[in-house]
Amino acid sequence: MSAGSARLTFTQKALRECWDDVKQQWSDQVSRDFEKNHLLPLDHQTSSAIRAMDKIAEVLHKIRQDCS
Predict the structure, then answer these.
(1) Which of 26, 49, 53, 65 could bridge to 31 as Cys pair (CB 3.0-4.6 Å)?
(2) What is the rounded distance in angstroms from the CA atom of residue 35 to the CA atom of residue 31?
(3) Exposed, middle or buried, 3 (CB in 10 Å: 0-12/13-18/19+)?
(4) pTM here?
């Protein structure tokens, strides 16, 4: 589970970096709407998913320890 979380974290960071590059060239109301309506919600959802994956990994680790 932690490998998936790490991969998602890396991908989220890469998307942010790409968007920062794009915003230097594309800075109008459409780009702001795109960021507000698509990228920010995706960022929040991705962060929530990463936290949930990390929590599940902790629980699974504890279960494995308790059952060994």
Answers:
(1) 26
(2) 6
(3) exposed
(4) 0.84
Residue with tokens 């932690």: 2
pLDDT digits (tens, 9 = 90+) for 20-63: 999 999 999 999 999 999 999 999 999 999 999 999 999 999 99
Q: DSSP string covering 34-68, please?
A: HIIIIIHHHHHHHHHHHHHHHHHHHHHHHHHHHH-
Q: Please state whether 27 falls in left (phi above 0), alpha (psi between -120 and 50) or beta.
A: beta
Query: Taking phi first (over 0 means left), then psi (-120 to 50 degrees means alpha), and beta for anything else, what does residue 35 get?
Result: alpha
pLDDT > 70? residue 1? no
Q: How many domains does the chain have?
A: 1
